Amino acid sequence: MQGQLIILFVLLPMTAGIATVLLHRWRMVQNVVGVALLAANVGLALYTLASLYQGVDADGTPLPGSLFVAQMGNWPAPFGITIAVDLLSALMLAVESIVCLAVFVYCITQLPSPLRGGYFHPLFHLLMLGVQWSFITGDLFNLFVAFEIMLMASYAMFCVGTTPSQMRQAYKYILLNLVGSTLFVTVAGLLYGQLGTLNMADIARIATTPGALPATSIPVIAMLVVVFGLKTAIFPLWFWLPDTYHTMPPALGGLFAGLLTKVGAYVLIRVFVMIFGAAEAVTEVVAPIILISSGVTMFVGVLGAVSMHTVRRILSIHIISQVGYMIMGIGIALTAGVVTQSRELAVAGAIFFILHNMAVKCCLFLCGGLMADHAGSDDLDRIGGLLRRAPWLAALFLIAALSLAGLPPLSGFFGKWVLIREGLKGQFYILTGFAIATSLLTLLSMLKIWSYGFWSPPSGDHAARPDHRPRTAGGVAAIAALVILSLSMGLGAEQYMNVCRSAARTLVDPTQYIAAVLGREHVPDPELAAPPTFTVSTRTAVRSTRLGRADTRPGDAP
Amino acid sequence: MSVLIAVTVGVLFAVSVYLMLGGELRGVCMGALLLGHGANLAILASSTSPAGKLPPILGDHVDLAMLVDPLPQALILTAIVIGFAVQAFLLTLLVLTWRRGRALTVDDLAMDPASQGDISDAAASPEQTS
């Protein structure tokens, strides 16, 4: 595959966005264009992931150069705009593209027609453009631009068909994100003043060179936690989320829940694990913040979810709780004294958890939407007994809900299992305790929806109108696709985890990323800067040390 | 000079926070505008001082070390364009809010009857009508 082709991840949604603006009078054409380009996007993402994973050796270590890099306008790396797709980006893109396609199918079949008319389509594609751009961008300023495109589209989506009460939430959402973006651009500017570069690989090179990171840049970098924390909705920056997401139509709620906070989590991994992971001056400041925040985030989030009583509110506040697990992995990986293997596993667990959560969370929101279509409300007091009425929906919901709670062999279990095991190994006993307690309470809150909504005797609007049958075929198909994706993550957990682990390995040791973007001569460690000599003998040597349960690999710091 | 810029940035940030917390929707829009200006000035201040340097125009006999770094200015330009778009969006939203609910402050929006009752009603109503 040609490396330059990765620009298609930006071009495809951009084309779709512009085409659907011009076609806003012809809804059918908009639908066809949307589905076609989204399907092409899924194909491209899966193809990219497959061809990247071919560059991984038997040991799971990506070989040098198994990374797609494109320099825009052929400007050399730290000066021009770099886009790069490594395994982490490819994984995110693969799951994100599938989620987008499923939500799109749900939207064009289930959304009430005033909402999906005319300009809904361009907004959808431009939102996706922002998300995909932030997954592939190789420098911090472009990340800001990608965030802005994503947020702009999300602001507008927020206001599609709003009631005045939603307007109030829209202002809250817009202002908070505006402050976050302004902080981001300020921090980016200050960081440029300190380091003279905004290219991620170049910053990583500076951070991995001992003593090259100026001490004054540490507070600036720590501010990035605030910027991305606000996007990810971690404690104490989560307050905007439960008030805003539930006011949207469930389909859009699903899209936002599935993508936006996960972009924040992805960026936290990219910036703190890959770029600054090796800079102890940064990690010793950031790691305690992230660890404490992750414990509080997951626990407070789930307590909120248990106390809520409408489907959308429960799910919205649940997003926060799940974010806690993702950043728990990041926190463990950044803590000093954790061996490299544990670091890798913790990051792999976090990546796996993000992928699982994108699919499952979005799926649950869509289920909530169909429940409301059937029952006329999503207040748990006013719906009940949907099991008889919509058995397929009930079955799909149950799988997704148990998967979110983390019951084996469903996908949520494996991400949590790896994270909790690494937490115990690293002696984070309190945090791990919180993680387990949160898991139990998640099960409780999911069972609440199940027992009130599906299992109880029929009640509410739909009981009085047994003939009222909303059309839900498209919605059920979209949900089924997401459930299948989630099931594949659970049943094929080993394969998924291997890919995640290979992705994590390139993040914990960013040498290859730096070499691929900047050129091999810029790699700080002279030993690793030597041209790749992956002969059979070195590979066997690597494998034999690993079989001997050694915690370090040759070339790793003890 | 840099002290002056730093103080200006501080004042801009302070004024914009004051305006945004005021709860008056027009003030909120103004605050967002000023916040962007503050950020742009901060980027300008953090780049190297332009004193005694040449504009970044390449010629035959130009000493590259004497040129001003053009990148922060490019960053600011991009940020200005984005800020402009966000500002336009906020003003549109302001007009829309006024047309829909005759609301000019955050409190007016809170007084709206739809937000007092069950929010799920208000949000679910378009689905029921379909």
Q: Which descriptors apply to this entry?
A:
A: 558 residues; mainly alpha; two-stranded antiparallel ribbon; 73% helix; B: 130 residues
Question: How would you describe the overall organization of this protein?
Answer:
The complex is a heterodimer of chains A (558) and B (130). Chain A has 24 helices and four strands. Chain A is an all-alpha fold and 558 residues long. Chain A has a two-stranded antiparallel sheet with strand order 1-2. In chain A, helix 3 (87-110) packs antiparallel against helix 20, helix 9 runs antiparallel to helix 11 and helix 14 (340-375) runs antiparallel to helix 20 (473-491). The two termini of chain A are 37 Å apart. Residues 528-558 of chain A have low confidence and may be disordered. Chain B starts with a helix and ends with a helix. Chain B is elongated, with a radius of gyration of 22 Å. Helices cover 72% and strands 0% of the residues of chain B. By secondary structure, chain B is an all-alpha fold. Chain B has a domain at 1-50 and 69-106: Helix Hairpins (Orthogonal Bundle), CATH 1.10.287. In chain B, helix 1 (2-21) packs antiparallel against helix 2. At the A-B interface, helix 4, helix 6 and helix 7 of A face helix 2, helix 3, helix 4 and helix 6 of B.
Summarize the helices and strands and which ones pair or pack.
The complex is a heterodimer of chains A (558) and B (130).
Chain A: H1 8-22, H2 27-53, E1 68-71, E2 82-85, H3 87-110, H4 113-116, H5 120-136, H6 140-159, H7 164-195, H8 200-208, H9 217-232, H10 240-244, H11 250-275, H12 280-307, H13 311-334, H14 340-375, E3 383-384, H15 386-389, H16 391-405, H17 411-425, H18 429-455, E4 459-460, H19 461-464, H20 473-491, H21 493-508, H22 511-518, H23 526-529, H24 536-547
Antiparallel strand pairs in A: 1-2, 3-4
Helix pairs in contact in A: 1-2, 1-5, 2-3, 3-5, 3-11, 3-14, 3-20, 5-6, 6-7, 7-9, 8-22, 9-11, 9-12, 11-13, 11-14, 12-13, 12-18, 13-14, 13-17, 13-18, 14-16, 14-17, 14-20, 14-21, 16-18, 16-20, 17-18, 17-20, 20-21
Chain B: H1 2-21, H2 25-46, H3 71-101, H4 106-111, H5 113-116, H6 119-129
Helix pairs in contact in B: 1-2, 2-3
